[in-house]
Write a structure and sequence with these properties.
The complex is a heterotrimer of chains A (about 100), B (about 325) and C (about 375). By secondary structure, chain A is of the alpha+beta class. A 3-stranded antiparallel sheet of chain A has the order 5-1-6. In chain A, strands 2-3-4 form a 3-stranded antiparallel sheet. Helices cover about 40% and strands about 30% of the residues of chain A. The mean pLDDT of chain A is about 90. Chain B is an alpha+beta fold and about 325 residues long. Chain B has helices at about 10-15, 15-25, 45-55, 80, 105-120, 150-155, 190-195, 220-225, 255-265, 275-285, 295-310, and strands at about 30, 35-40, 70-75, 85-90, 95, 100, 125-135, 135-140, 160-165, 165-170, 175-180, 185, 205-210, 215-220, 235-240, 250, 290-295. In chain B, strands 7, 8, 9, 10, 11, 15, 16 and 17 form an 8-stranded mixed sheet that branches. In chain B, strands 1, 2, 3, 4, 5 and 6 form a 6-stranded mixed sheet that branches. In chain B, helix 2 (about 15-25) packs across helix 3 and helix 9 crosses helix 10. Chain B is globular. Chain C has one domain (about 10-355). A 7-stranded mixed sheet of chain C has the order 3-4-5-2-1-7-6. In chain C, helix 9 (about 215-225) runs antiparallel to helix 10 (about 235-250), helix 9 (about 215-225) crosses helix 11 and helix 14 (about 300-315) packs across helix 15 (about 325-345). The chains are: A alpha+beta (about 100), B alpha+beta (about 325), C mainly alpha (about 375). Chains in contact: A-B, A-C, B-C. The interface of B and C includes residues 65, 120 and 121 of B.
């Protein structure tokens, strides 16, 4: 079976607005990060229960921002990798046929 | 202010002979507010140095507890005569390299700060100069080039009560700052700056050629010592920056700058985990945050006081 | 079981690490003393963890409770940091065909043992098969880990003469990673066959990570202690051993298996020493026949006569108000020589020590722990 990657929010992550930025804390990595609006929007899309694929995140962000999914792919991919390293988000394997 | 004007009991009144005895035997017990310290020493010059800068502290007479146990011991061996040194030992560990024997006081100050920063994780320890006025705390994060110690010293000589020039010790359960009362370390030009600012300032001996250059210490006032257990609610956050020739500038900073100045400039923010995150968020939301650029100490302290009166609520102090 | 053993009174407080309730009767002076000694021995976090888990904190004197709370926070932060690195490591290594084995503290944490709580890990010890160690190291380097700065001589020492590659460090979190392929150096006079260890691996609670078999964990801990160069303040290792023996000791066949395994791996001396000190100082319940069997194969009487006192002097916790006694320093030095003799043949030892001792080598780093540099 071919797998794709989904992203879930790490449980107990704290995200708070601060002026026109946001601050996020990860209980897994113990790190605190200052994140901008776009990154915060991506984090808000994610949940602990169901995984979101890169494609789904791109589509959602594009709709919010008013652009094409392809335009957001680089940004979203970069953001998700950063979040994984920071312990805010976890990558999980999904069986191919769960992809819409 | 002359020490003779105050009731007997400070180290200054005890006299160096008696002090030397205590240091050599069971130890001298000093209550710094956040922690109780026991000091032992066999270095003779140390008692005089201690007397100068802890002059208004009264040693605890029948101590039942000390949080920190520190010994300043002369190094033994051949060294003793060639280049006498003093070692800093706590709980039979020597944590750092020895200092020259006549630099026992800077070694004590430096070492105790290190121990506090490493051990006292029951509170959030910001790296900041902290003073109290009207029951509230002025918090000045120790950014590079801030001159926070000089500014803390100056403010403490203009009616602000010193809590600490090094630690913003925030107790999240109490929602207030606690004093970690120790002499203010002044370096190089700051020593003369403060002498000019306040000719009566009680500054101890100068130590030359330390790692930080020349260092001297301003003794905490009698008032600061007697009120060291009185806490201060969050008041105002000020990010100072000394800039030669600069006019005094005092302007607001955005909350994310306030956040990073506290969180990424603390002794134990990361150790506090989620609690640390929440505490700093609460502080940022509860305190107006300003940037202060200055070169003239008098003008800076005056402008700060003005802003303080505008910004900080004068509600009656709810604490006992 | 061995007859009722009363540990020396100065070590009686160690019982509180297993039975926190025994600390309820301590007065303020005792608490002050224990906190200082425990801190020095890196056992304060463990004490705090047990006390907190037993819900005892509100019943303690406030002055003591705050130190326990403070240290527990610190230990939790350090331990969580280690757990995070171990969670990320399999991703960083990528798909590997060989086992990844946790050692020591990480292993205790990965099995959820009581001795895994309240620890202060400063490094990560993991084991991989010798033939794959270069591959593992290459993958780690590719993932951003860096080799600790060692010159060519030290690098060769670690690779050829010892069982470790040079420690690696990650710039982001600063934890040091020690990659092992055996539990003792291959050139040491005691040679352990690593393939035997690898053949008995068990699962841990953490995905992708395995641990040594229980007997092997005990023997590793014992060998690591009694073959090491620095035994001062190592009482914690005896406490760990006691914890392992109590935890695994209830499993049927464990004790017989332990003695047999010690013979197979060539670690009977370490085991005998471990059982000797654990039973006398920590009242570890060792079955008498096991004690006898271990003694029969352990040290000769003659050797015990000089080695036991040396070890006692070195392992004994120092009075917190004094610098360690001269006797202890001398004992430690003697053991250091023994360690080096055991670790390398003389022909290799001399050039190595010369390299270490020559002027300028390993000059002590300037301990510029300035008071106003935040310690993270």
């Amino acid at each position: 079976m071919i797998h794709s990657t989904g992203y879930v929010l790490v449980p107990d992550v704290l995200v708070e607005p601060l002026g026109d930025h946001w601050v996020a804390f990860s209980p897994s990595s113990g790190e605190s990060h200052l994140i901008n609006d776009t990154s915060a929007a991506i984090v808000e899309m994610l949940s602990c229960e169901s995984a979101l694929t890169l494609a789904q995140a791109c589509t959602a962000l594009a709709a919010e921002v008013g652009t094409l999914p392809a335009d957001t792919e680089g940004l979203v991919h970069e953001a998700l990798q950063t979040f994984v390293r920071a312990g805010l988000v976890r990558a999980v394997r999904l069986p191919r046929d769960t992809h819409p | 202010m002359s020490p003779d004007a105050h009731p007997a009991g400070g180290l200054h009144q005890l006299g160096t002979g008696a002090l030397r005895q205590r240091l050599a035997r069971g130890g001298l017990h000093l209550d710094l507010g956040l922690v109780r310290l026991r000091v032992r020493a066999d270095e003779p010059s140390f008692a005089d140095q201690l007397c100068e800068v802890y002059r208004h502290f009264t040693p605890t007479e029948e101590p039942t507890w000390s949080d920190l146990h520190v010994s300043l011991l002369r190094a033994t061996g051949v060294r003793r005569w060639l280049r006498p040194q003093v070692r800093f030992i706590s709980d039979s560990r020597m944590e750092f390299d020895p200092f020259p024997a006549d630099h026992a006081l800077p070694l004590l100050e430096w070492g105790v700060n290190w121990l506090i920063g490493r051990r006292m994780n029951d509170v959030l320890l910001l790296h900041a100069g902290t003073l109290e006025r009207d029951g509230r705390a002025l918090v000045m994060p120790a950014l590079p080039g801030s001159g926070k110690s000089t500014l803390s010293a100056a403010l403490s000589l203009r009616g602000w009560r010193l809590l600490s020039d090094e630690f913003g010790a925030f107790d999240p359960r109490a929602g207030a700052f606690r004093a970690v009362l120790k002499p203010v370390a002044l370096k190089n030009e700051s020593i003369d700056v403060i002498r000019r600012f306040e000719p009566g300032a009680e500054i101890g001996p100068s130590f030359i050629k330390t790692r930080k250059g020349t260092v001297a210490h301003l003794a905490p006032s009698f008032e600061a010592v007697s009120r060291r257990h009185v806490t201060a609610l969050p008041g105002m956050l000020v990010l100072p920056r000394w800039q030669a020739g600069s006019a005094t500038v005092l302007e607001p900073v955005p909350p994310q700058v306030a956040f990073t100045s506290l969180a990424f400039n603390a002794f134990n923010y990361a150790v506090q985990g989620a609690d640390g995150f929440r505490a700093v968020m609460a502080l940022v939301r509860g305190m107006p945050a300003w940037r202060l650029q200055y070169s003239d100490l008098e003008d800076a302290t005056a402008r700060l006081l003005e802003r303080w009166h505008e910004q900080v609520p004068l509600d009656s102090d709810p604490r006992p | 079981m061995t007859g009722p053993v009363t540990p020396p009174p100065q070590l009686a407080w160690l019982e509180a690490l297993r039975e926190p309730a025994s600390a309820l009767e301590w007065d303020l002076a005792r608490w002050e003393h224990v906190i200082r000694v425990a801190r020095r021995l890196r056992l304060l976090g463990r004490l705090a963890s047990g006390v907190c888990a037993a819900g005892m904190l509100p019943r303690l004197p406030a002055q003591a409770a705050r130190h326990l709370q403070a240290e527990l926070r610190y230990a939790t932060w350090r331990s969580d940091g280690l757990a995070w690195v171990l969670e990320r490591l399999p991703d960083m290594l990528g798909e590997v065909t060989y086992p990844l084995v946790l050692l020591k503290g990480a292993a205790y944490m990965g099995q959820g043992l009581a001795i895994g709580r309240g620890r202060l890990p400063s490094d990560v010890d993991i084991l991989v098969p010798r033939e794959h160690i270069a591959d593992a190291q290459a993958r780690l380097l590719g993932a951003g880990w860096e080799e600790a700065a060692l010159d060519a001589h030290d690098q060769r020492y670690y690779r050829e003469w010892s069982h470790e590659v040079a420690p690696m460090r990650h710039p982001l979190h600063g934890l040091e990673l020690d990659l092992h392929h055996n539990i003792l150096p291959p050139v040491a006079r005691t040679h352990v066959d690593a393939s035997l260890l690898l053949a008995s691996l068990q699962a841990s609670n953490w995905p992708h990570w395995q641990v040594l078999a229980p007997a092997d964990q005990v023997l590793h801990s014992a060998a690591h202690l009694f073959h090491d160069s620095e035994l001062r303040d190592r009482l914690r290792d005896l406490v760990d051993l006691d914890g392992l023996l109590r935890h695994f000791g209830t499993a049927p066949g464990f004790w017989d298996g332990l003695v047999a395994r010690a013979s197979v791996l060539g670690l009977h001396e370490s085991l005998t020493l471990a059982l000797h000190f654990c039973s006398r100082w920590l009242a570890t319940p060792v079955p008498p026949e096991v004690m006898a069997a271990a003694r029969a194969r352990g040290l000769s009487r003659a050797k015990a006569l000089w080695l036991h006192p040396l070890l006692e002097a070195t392992l004994w916790p120092a009075d917190p108000d004094r610098l360690p006694p001269r006797r202890q320093a001398l004992a430690a030095q003697t053991l250091l020589v023994r360690h080096h003799l055991g670790r390398m043949p003389l022909s290799l030892l001399l050039p190595h020590l010369w390299h270490k001792l020559r002027p300028g080598a390993g000059a002590r780093a300037d301990a510029d722990v300035a008071a106003d540099a935040p310690a993270r």
